[in-house]
Amino acid sequence: MSINQSGWRPTSPEANAGNVPASVTGNKALMLEEALIFEIGDNHTTGVDFASPSPLRGEGRGEGQPSNAAPGTAPHPTLSPEGRGLSRLAGLARNNPIGLPGLSEPETVRHYTRLSRQNYGIDLGFFPLGSCTMKHNPRLNEKMARLPGFSDVHPLQPVDTVQGALEVIHQLAHWLVTLTGMTSVAMSPKAGAHGELCGILAIRAALEAKGEGARKIILVPESAHGTNPATAAFAGYSVEDIPATAEGRVDTAALKARLGPDVAGVMITNPNTCGLFERDMREISDAVHAAGGFVYCDGANFNAIVGRVRPGDLGIDAMHINLHKTFSTPHGGGGPGSGPVVFSEALTPYAPLPFVEKQGDQFVLVEEENADEHHAGSFGRMVAFHGQMGMFTRALTYILSHGADGLRQVSEDAVLNANYILRSLDDTLDAPFGPSGPCMHEALFSDSGLAAGFSTIDIAKGLIDEGFHPMTMYFPLVVHGAMLVEPTETESKAALDQFIAALRSVAERAKAGDPSLKTAPHFAPRARLDETLAARKPVLVWKEPSPLAQAAE
Amino acid sequence: MRYLPLTQPDREAMLAVIGAATIDDLFVDVPEAARLDGPVRDLPMHASEMAVERHMSALAKKNLTAGEAPFFLGCGAYKHHVPASVDHLIQRGEFLTAYTPYQPEIAQGTLQMLFEFQTQVARLLGTDVANASMYDGSTACWEAIVMARRITKRGKAILSSGLHPHYVSVSKTMAKFTGDVLDTAAPELAADMDLDQLIAKIDDDTSCVVVQYPDILGRIADLRPLADACHAKKALLIAVVTEPVALGAITSPGEMDADIVVGEGQSLGVGLQFGGPYVGLFGCKDKYVRQMPGRLCGETVDADGRRGFVLTLSTREQHIRREKATSNICTNSGLCALAFSIHMTLLGEAGLRQLAEINHAGAVSAAERLSQIPGVELVNDSFFNEFTLKLPTEARPVVRTLADRGILAGVSLGRLYPGEDALANGLVVAVTETTTAEDVETLASALQEILA
Question: Do A54 and B358 touch (CB under 8 A)?
Answer without folding.
Answer: yes
